[in-house]
Design a protein that fits this description.
The structure holds 2 protein chains of 2 kinds.
Chain A: H1 3-8, H2 10-13, H3 37-45, H4 47-50, H5 67-71, H6 75-83, H7 85-88, H8 94-107, H9 121-127, H10 135-149
Chain B: H1 2-19, H2 22-38, E1 72-74, E2 91-92, E3 97-103, E4 108-118, E5 127-129, E6 157-167
Antiparallel strand pairs in B: 1-5, 2-4, 3-4, 4-6
Classes of the chains: A mainly alpha, B alpha+beta.
Chain lengths: ~160, ~170
């Protein structure tokens, strides 16, 4: 498909922006040499939607900066982030997905919060292959529980 | 019937002969030939050629420029911007697709992001469609058929820039 065709479909697609994949987190600068594999995997598989600093797009693409580390505080949150479409459907193998998520949580953590326990490949394997039926509803439930026990990610996604 | 035709052609031939001469024919022919010879010397808008895609792979206005390996769209370098900056009046998309391009000049592979510039109608200059490494739409970060202006306030697509993110590991 060419750009002319794409420009025509613009209005058809714009309403679906909120459903773009939800996965990884950040990068410490635009023109940086990707020396670590998780950083490169983030560039190749996550950054296109979640942004150069894992910041997301307000109201459209959930941020991974800060939010991911907060989700990782609880068992429900960890289960949720491994089953969102971007993670569950990612081309990354389980071990690489775990590495990218751990790199993101370490690089773009939640200020004032203890570092969360890292994901293991086994944890990813046991969870990600059961995608969520209703991502937004599940997100609201998880956020409600997290907010009851401390800091929670933003709710508008 | 045949007499009518004869009279008609005789009349038209005599009329033409009365109104023209061999000299006037030669004069008209001379004017046409002289005008045709002088036509290339008239001034033309050569500046507009600057908006055509270059044929040189070393030029950022050429579709063959190395970092455009996964591009699909109008080059912003032909639309009032540069290969990595949007033209005035447009805004870069915060979401984008990714490619990995080989730079023959230094033999290295680079990860490149392709950002759409949004806010004006299509530029229509330097339309390039290279798709190295493109994946289907269900792998959106590697797909260039999406309108990546979808997250902008104004979703009109104008042109595309490419930004080098880093060197690709093997």
């Amino acid at each position: 498909m060419t750009r002319r065709a794409r420009a025509r479909q613009a209005l058809l697609v714009q309403g679906k922006a909120a459903f773009l994949p939800v996965v990884c987190a950040a990068l410490a600068g635009l023109a940086v040499v990707a020396r670590a594999s998780p950083a490169q995997d983030y560039m190749l598989y996550c950054m296109g939607c979640h942004g150069t600093q894992a910041q997301g797009v307000p109201g459209r693409i959930p941020p991974l900066a800060v939010s991911l580390a907060l989700f990782m505080r609880s068992a429900e949150g960890r289960n949720y982030v491994l089953r969102v479409p971007g993670a569950a459907n990612s081309a990354l193998p389980d071990a690489q997905l775990a590495a990218v998520l751990n790199w993101l949580a370490a690089s773009y953590g939640a200020p004032g919060e203890p570092a969360p326990a890292p994901f293991t490949a086994a944890e990813v394997t046991s969870v990600r292959h059961t995608p969520l039926a209703d991502v937004q509803a599940r997100r609201r439930e998880v956020l409600h529980a997290l907010a009851a026990s401390g800091a929670a990610p933003a709710a508008q996604y | 019937m045949m007499r009518r035709f004869d009279r008609l052609f005789e009349h038209s031939t005599r009329s033409l002969a009365q109104r023209t001469s061999r000299r006037s024919l030669l004069a008209s022919l001379g004017q046409v030939l002289t005008g045709a010879a002088l036509l290339p010397l008239l001034p033309i808008d050569r500046a507009s050629r600057a908006h055509a895609a270059s044929d040189s792979p070393a030029s950022p206005e050429s579709c063959d420029y190395w970092k455009y390996c996964a591009i699909d769209g109008f080059l912003c370098s032909c639309c009032g911007g540069t290969s990595s900056s949007c033209p005035p009046g447009t805004a870069a998309s915060p979401i984008f697709w990714i490619g990995t391009c080989h730079n023959a000049a230094d033999g290295r592979d680079y990860i490149v992001s392709y950002n759409d510039c949004c806010g004006k109608s299509g530029c229509s200059a330097c339309d390039c469609n290279r798709n190295e490494g493109e994946k289907p739409i269900y792998r959106p970060s590697r797909n260039n058929d999406l309108n990546w202006c979808m997250a902008n306030a104004n979703v009109n697509y104008h042109c595309t820039v490419s930004v080098i993110l880093g060197v690709a590991e093997k």
